[in-house]
Structures are given as structure tokens and as C-alpha cells.
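Section 5.1 Outputs to date
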Amino acid sequence: MSVNQRPSGVTALAILEISLGVLLFTGFMFAFFPTLTATHFHFRPVREAVLLVLATVDFILAYCLWNGKSWAWTTALVFALVGIVFSGFMLFIRPALGGMASLIIELLILYYLLQPKVQRHFGRSKQLQKQQV
């Protein structure tokens, strides 16, 4: 499938990953450079490293989703599954509307990624045919 035929939902997922990367990178900047905010963050190297790594992963994943890389589909699927488990756990611990919204969004992403048109975009249709035979 060419770039012009990219499903619009894949574009939305790539934009979502870019947004998450920006948020994580912003968190890194505020934590690493506390003078950027009026609040005082305490420098914690592990926290800052995790934020930076996660932001980088989100940017790479967004690029690869945008370009239809097969491994990006698998990674997005794993992230959705982890998000479902985490959201479900958080709803069990402390029920909240935000947790419910997060769970619904992760379930929608999982459902969308499993659609045949989306799987074809990522070159998964041949692998699916082999599994069915």
C-alpha cells in the first residue's frame, strides 16, 4: 500500500504517538531543567532517562506507523495490550473517569489495529493467510 493509501486511522495513531512523545519530552525538559517552570523539581536521573527514552520510542514509532513498517504494527499492538492491562489495573485500584476513558481508547486502538485493511497496510495480510492455512 502506498503512502497515499494510508488508512486515516493510521495517520491518527501516528499523530497520537507524536503527541505522546511531545508530552514525554516536555516532562523531561521540565524535570531536567527546573528553571523552565516556577515549581521546583528534584533531579532524578532515572526518571529523566525513562522520560527521554519513552519520548524517543514514541517519535520512532510514529515515524514507522506513518510509513507502514510491519514491526510498528506489532509494537503498537503490544503497547495497546499493555495499556489495557494498566488501565484495567488502575480502574481496579482507583476508579475514575480518566481511567475508563484510557481503557476505552486502548480498546479502540486494539480493535482498529486488528482490522484487515490496517493489517494489509502494514504487510500483515500474507502472514495472516499463512496462519489460516
